[in-house]
Amino acid sequence: MEELTPVRQSYGRCALKPDFIDYFYDEFLKSHPAIAPMFINTDFKIQKELLQTGIGMLLAYLEGKPAGKMTIDRIAVSHNKTHMNIDPNFYQYWIDSLIKAVKHCDSRYTPDLERSWQKVLRAGVDCIASQHDVPTS
Ligand code: HEM
Fold first, then answer.
1. Which of 24, 34, 47, 79 could tie 101 with a disulfide, CB 3.0–4.6 Å?
2. Distance CA 68, CA 131 (A)
3. What pLDDT digit, counting tens, does each position of 10-41 carry?
């Protein structure tokens, strides 16, 4: 996927900004009334690190790296119907919030880059959301 290179570079610029993940969670938690209550007992210091790794692994998965696929499949299990049961409709809020954080943090942000982020995140999220109903132990 040709969009991966500009998105990887943009993510590199965002990851250098100390408020990137904070900005994402501020946006994500207020994006839908059902979302903030899910994180009521969450230790955000840990969660922010896990998410940062998760985004890196999502890109690695789309780049064809086995460690990326393994991590994304594990996240798909923790979020599936048998575990946290995250409604697949919520993933669009996740994508929109992440793109707002990119827009806030990446000084080289353009509408073209936004389209690339949309396409890349959609492909990663589809892998997770498509496993929602797969039975797991
Ligand atoms: C592609 C999108 C997403 C990624 C990459 C992601 C990644 C993660 C990761 C890495 C964790 C830590 C636990 C684990 O490793 O399984 C986690 C926990 C969690 N995620 Fe997600 N997530 C995504 C989307 C969502 C969405 C859309 C929701 C809800 C609307 C959500 C709700 C949660 C909750 C409630 C936790 C548990 C927090 C806690 O431990 O208190 N996630 N997520």
1. 24
2. 16
3. 999 999 999 999 999 999 999 999 999 999 99
